[in-house]
Amino acid sequence: MTQHTVVVGAGIVGVCSALSLATAGQRVTLIDRQGPGEGASFGNASILATWAVVPVQTPGILWRVPKMLLDPLGPLAIRWRYLPKLAPWLLRFLAESTTARVEALSISLGELMKGAVDAFNPLLEAAGAKGMIQRAGKIEVFETEKGFHALKPIMDIERRRGVRIEELDVHELRQLEPGLAPLFVRALFYPDVAHVVDNYRLVQVLAEAVVRHGGAVVKADVRGFEVGPDGPRAVLTDAGSHPCDHVVIAAGAWSKPLAAKLGSAVPLDTERGYHVHLPTPGVLLRHPVHSSERAVAMTPLETGIRLAGTVELGGLDAPPDWRRADILLKSARPWLPGLETAGMTRWMGFRPSMPDSLPVISRSPVHKNVLFAFGHGHVGLTLAARTGKIVADMAAGRDPGIDLRPYRVDRF
User: Which of 67, 118, 261, 300 has its CA 20 to 30 A from that of 393?
Assistant: First the structure.
């Protein structure tokens, strides 16, 4: 008898999980209160950031907390009003920033990154969308020598995890990206990085493939679960009940209350990210370009150029601070002479983040038919296909080929 799995959450992680399950022969229902890809997956930087093997909370971050509170427009900022609610998460976040913990966490991130881009291949084939991922590499640029040397400890960890990095002089940078202004003193090239030509469309075509493989996509708000002696036997929504054999919670920043209803308390919070999208930029960008000095990424998409980045810790309810999006544009203007802003749009979304920067990819310790796949922070797009394959393996009782203990839901 075909197993029926309900996947809660139609962002990139949920959709990749659903399609991995569907292509493995399971009947799948994908449920979200929004349409596929309309949450964080709508506006991310569209980069498969396989270099991102270093957690956000690096050593010394404790001494940056006062600045985070005092500068609402800094690359990493905390909203004062949210601080009391954030405090438990923030304390765990700081505890995970020791040199030893950062090294251990980077190893766990590195294990997930192995094969992360290739994991998309069977999903893209199932969706008839092979050309949506471009393996162009990524350029890291530096406006100052100080910025370059500040990144060296991070680069050392990246190299220990097997990330390939090539140092460029200004002439080589000019050859790779002739459209950039001559403002940079150093650059790095990450040849194994890929990007998606339209991250929102990717989620949609993968969701359409779920339907073609016999699944269903339902727009509804999940309210709870009907739990029997062997675990959840139905997912309850505002539009009806969905019987199931397995449940996958992949609801991104909204996963915490759903996990709690299933007996697992998780210290999940959200990093609010912003983007500016320029549909007719008037300039050519060949590669994703990132600046760690300004926490800004520029990505060439089939729909224009996207500027994305920065972190704001402020919860799910506070209104956007559009000044943070405007800073992205202010940073990029000098870099790309002739940049046009006609038709520009701004966006804010929620990265689901754990205090140790590792996702939750785990079977429930309470219900054997519940799987968790959330909390990917800055690497949700990057690890979505890899996570989806692991979810399908766990659901089928197969060995996923990776030690999942670092990502368990009850690790705290």
Answer: 261
